C-alpha cells in the first residue's frame, strides 16, 4: 500500500530535510516515528528537500508499507512519536503511480522579512530582520523579470547538483503586510538556494541601492558572483507542492 502524508515542521533545530548519519533531520525523525507505527523500517520520499533552518507548511511525502493501519493510526501514531516541532497534518492512501516528487506540478515558497528598526523576539525563528525601509512595490516590479522559463545560474548555489539551471517560475509576488514584507514564488522546481539568492538580490532593490532593472540584468548575465548575497534561512518556508486534482489530495496541495 502506498500512503501520502502532509507534514508541517519548524526547521530551526534540524540540519534540513534529508536524512543524515551525523545529526537531526526532519526525514530522520519522521521515518523513526512511522517505523514505530508500522513495526518495521519505513522510508519516505518527499516533494522537495529543504535546507537547515527552513520550515515546512505542508511538505508532502509518500511511502510504501505491506502492513495495514487505519489512516488515523498513521496520523496520530506518527505525530505522537515526533518531536513537538513536527506534525502530520493528514494521511491518505494513494495510487501506486503517485510519487511525491515526480507527480508534483509545482512548488511554492514564502520568504518573510520583518522590516522595522528593532529585531524580532517572538517571531525570531520565522522571519529575517531588515532594519532599513523596503519598498515592496519596487521589489515586486523587479521580480516580474523572473517569470517564465529561464536559466537561473545567477541565483544558483555553487554546491547545486541539479543537472541544468533552467527552471520555470510560474508566479512571483512581493507585498507588504504591516511591518512584514513577504516574497512568494511558485515554480516547477527550484535550484539549491534559489529562493534565498533571489531574495538576497531583491533586498538591494527594495532599499533603493539598485534599480528595478537589476533583476533582469542579473538573470541575463547568469553570473552568481555579481548577484546579491544569499539571504538567511530564517524566514523561508516551503508552503508545499501542487498536484493535479485527479490524485485526490487535499485542496491545499491540489491545483485549482
- In quaternary terms, these chains amount to single chain
Strand content: 25-35%
The succession of helices and strands, N to C, reads EHEEHEEEHEEEHHE
CATH architecture of the largest domain: 2-Layer Sandwich
Largest sheet data: 10 strands, mixed
What's the CATH first level of the largest domain?
A: Alpha Beta
Helix count, per DSSP? 5
Q: What is the domain total for the residues? A: 2
Backbone shape:
globular
Number of strands: 10
Q: Provide the low-confidence segments as ranges.
A: none
**CATH topology call of the largest domain:** Alpha-Beta Plaits
Walkthrough of the structure:
This protein is of the alpha+beta class and 256 residues long. It has two domains: 2-103, Alpha-Beta Plaits (2-Layer Sandwich); 106-238, Alpha-Beta Plaits, CATH 3.30.70. Helices cover 20% and strands 29% of the residues. The chain has five helices and ten strands; from the N terminus they run E-H-E-E-H-E-E-E-H-E-E-E-H-H-E. It has helices spanning 26-38, 71-80, 136-143, 194-206, 214-221, and strands spanning 2-9, 45-46, 55-64, 86-94, 106-115, 128-130, 148-151, 166-177, 180-187, 236-242. Strands 1, 2, 3, 4, 5, 6, 7, 8, 9 and 10 form a ten-stranded mixed beta sheet that branches. Strand 8 and strand 9 form a beta hairpin. The two termini are 27 Å apart. The model has no long low-confidence stretch (mean pLDDT 96).
Amino acid at each position: 500500500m502506498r500512503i501520502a502524508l502532509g507534514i508541517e515542521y519548524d526547521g530551526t533545530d534540524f540540519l534540513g530535510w534529508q536524512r543524515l548519519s551525523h545529526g537531526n533531520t526532519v526525514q530522520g525523525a519522521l521515518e523513526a516515528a512511522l517505523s514505530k507505527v508500522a513495526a518495521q523500517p519505513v522510508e519516505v520520499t518527499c516533494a522537495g528537500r529543504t535546507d537547515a533552518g527552513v520550515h515546512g507548511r505542508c511538505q508532502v511525502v509518500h511511502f510504501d508499507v505491506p502492513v495495514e493501519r487505519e489512516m488515523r493510526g498513521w496520523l496520530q501514531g506518527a505525530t505522537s512519536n515526533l518531536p513537538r516541532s513536527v506534525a502530520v497534518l493528514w494521511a491518505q492512501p494513494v495510487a501506486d503511480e503517485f510519487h511525491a516528487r515526480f507527480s508534483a506540478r509545482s512548488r511554492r515558497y514564502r520568504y518573510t522579512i520583518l522590516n522595522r528598526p528593532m529585531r524580532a523576539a517572538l517571531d525570531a525563528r520565522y522571519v529575517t530582520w531588515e532594519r532599513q525601509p523596503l519598498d515592496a512595490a519596487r521589489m515586486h516590479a523587479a521580480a516580474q523579470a523572473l517569470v517564465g522559463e529561464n536559466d537561473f545560474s545567477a541565483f544558483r548555489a555553487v554546491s547545486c547538483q541539479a543537472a541544468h539551471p533552467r527552471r520555470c517560475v510560474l508566479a512571483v509576488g512581493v507585498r507588504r503586510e504591516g511591518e512584514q514584507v513577504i516574497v512568494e514564488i511558485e515554480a516547477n522546481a527550484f535550484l539549491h538556494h534559489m529562493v534565498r539568492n533571489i531574495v538576497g538580490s531583491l533586498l538591494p532593490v527594495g532599499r533603493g541601492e539598485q534599480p528595478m532593472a537589476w533583476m533582469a540584468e542579473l538573470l541575463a548575465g547568469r553570473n552568481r558572483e555579481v548577484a546579491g548575497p544569499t539571504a538567511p534561512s530564517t524566514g523561508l518556508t516551503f508552503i508545499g507542492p501542487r498536484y493535479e486534482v485527479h490524485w485526490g489530495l487535499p485542496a491545499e496541495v491540489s491545483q485549482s
